[in-house]
């Protein structure tokens, strides 16, 4: 019984690895990076040609649905509302136009993550940054 309990405890801690940072390519020259370190106010960095040109702060909303480890598909749906964006280069402001209400689908399994953040675009496929 002790061995079973220890095995379950170890396997849960291995699978409970929480990913906080994600990178999503918009096109060949542009990408966005999402940081979920602060669950209440996630931040998004905007990059063009490997140069960071803006940081946006979002507020987490009550519509966010956290994942359930017992479900067949364990994923969290983040519903975010734009708080503010700080642009370092005004001429790059239109390179990645962000939406007011963003949505991030975080998979807690070996599945894809998707981020709906760019105006007029389909959700971006993202990968976790280690």
TrEMBL record:
This is Uncharacterized protein. It comes from Bacteriovorax stolpii (Bdellovibrio stolpii). It comes from the Bacteria.
């Amino acid at each position: 019984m002790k061995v079973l309990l220890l095995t379950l405890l170890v396997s849960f801690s291995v699978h409970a690895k929480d990913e906080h940072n994600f990178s999503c390519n918009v096109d060949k020259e542009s990408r966005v990076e999402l940081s979920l370190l602060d669950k209440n106010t996630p931040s998004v960095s905007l990059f063009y040609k490997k140069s960071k040109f803006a940081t946006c702060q979002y507020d987490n909303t009550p519509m966010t649905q956290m994942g359930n480890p017992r479900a067949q598909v364990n994923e969290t749906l983040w519903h975010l509302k734009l708080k503010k964006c700080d642009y370092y280069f005004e001429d790059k402001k239109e390179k990645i136009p962000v939406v007011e209400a963003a949505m991030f689908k975080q998979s807690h399994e070996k599945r894809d993550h998707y981020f709906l953040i760019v105006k007029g675009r389909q959700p971006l496929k993202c990968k976790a940054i280690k």
